[in-house]
Amino acid sequence: MRLTFYGAAQEVTGSCFLVETGNTRFLVDCGLFQGGREADAKNRNALDFEVERIDFVLLTHAHLDHSGLLPRLVAFGYSGPIYTIAGTGDLLEVMLADAAFIQERESDRRRNRREPLYTVKQAEMTCRQVRAVAYGEEFQPHPSVRCRFRDAGHILGSAIIETWVQDGGQTRNLVFSGDIGQPGHPIVEDPDLIEAAEILLVESTYGNRQHKTMDRTLDEFVGAVRETIEERGGNVIVPAFAVGRTQEIIYLIVKLHREGRLPEIDIYVDSPMALAATEVTLKHMDLVDEDAMEAMRWLRGSGGGKPRINFVQEFAQSQALSNIKGGALIISASGMCDAGRIRHHLRRNLPRAQSAVVFTGFQAAGTLGRRIVDGAKSVRIFGEEIRVRAAIHTIGGLSAHADRAALLNWLRAFRKPPRRTFVVHGEVSTAHDFAQAVRDELGWKAEVPPPRTTVEL
Prior knowledge:
Layout: E1 2-7, E2 16-20, E3 25-28, H1 39-45, E4 56-58, H2 64-67, H3 70-75, E5 82-85, H4 86-109, H5 120-127, E6 130-133, E7 138-142, E8 145-151, E9 159-167, E10 170-176, E11 199-203, H6 214-231, E12 236-239, H7 245-258, E13 266-270, H8 272-283, H9 290-301, E14 308-311, H10 315-320, E15 328-332, H11 342-349, E16 356-359, H12 368-373, E17 378-381, E18 384-387, E19 391-394, H13 404-412, E20 420-424, H14 428-442, E21 446-447, E22 454-456
Parallel strand pairs: 3-4, 4-5, 5-6, 10-11, 11-20, 12-15, 12-16, 13-14, 13-15, 16-19, 20-21
Antiparallel strand pairs: 1-2, 1-22, 2-3, 7-8, 8-9, 9-10, 17-18
Helix pairs in contact: 4-5, 4-8, 13-14
């Protein structure tokens, strides 16, 4: 049996792992590379294996760094099933079509008219190949493979994938963590604990740091909002992933307002995809926790005097938000600021000392968000040099990724160490730091595979 790390190896994006035996070949995830000048070339060269020989795909969740190259896989000739949780399948219909639309639009804008990675039609074809499974349900995508999806607690429909693969008279138990969520976060349930794996792939996005407690995190968020809106009279700009993070922030704002910690403010969710993702979340209320359901009931049933949440659809409406000088909290995608409407709001508000930008998620190396978080005095947006005068807040405690302690606690649930543990989905220094922590604190063997490495299992 062979395992090849085609992505998310010594970096955070591009998740893609190929498993090959004498009986079958399958992929776990097929994600976009994001951030940096090399991302486009990586995406165009990513699928340099025999696509037509892939029997099936297992998908951990809908975020594009895990799913965003599936339409390219289909465009290259893959016609088999894509197994994932039902909520993820619904989110894919929103996310892949949007990603394809952006690809086509960017292709039209460029003078050299470089072909998009895939088209909207190919994204739609991809969604027709999705096969929905339920958490805890054991199924056989191939006569030699059994699988089970467990709740990863990251976003709606996110999964840890357990597989049992027959090869040469032996059955190997491979577990793919996907993205593990931070316990105690709203909307999603806490991650399921896994007890056994012979081969384990574990993420390490925040494997070198600790998040603040949720209480301290909310104090920090409240402080940033009140100081900006009440004291300085500016706007609060929140770059957020349309799927998962936006819904969590809305929930937290409702919670904080109900507790009297936030005033009545105007909240603008400037992302058509976020509205669609919120509607998918409401469709799958069986996958969310009781706190989120209770907050939704309150928001629907209360009268005036609540946060005024406005979903912005039309681009003209989005542009009109630029006329708001103060008192608004604007949540917009993309979460790493490299595309989408958030760039318009940053161009308008970054130069204003009255305003603030609140980052609540991971910013990959090479992205606009990362440059701002790292303290750039100016950044280039739409070809224009923009001074950074706004207050910049990074609130890591809202991250949907488990921190170092939570990841280690998740690993401690295993009854015995896996025979091999591969640390993936982390920047190179972070992955090595976390692998060392696994060795030191758990006594396990842990390794950090280089990109495109093939290992014999």
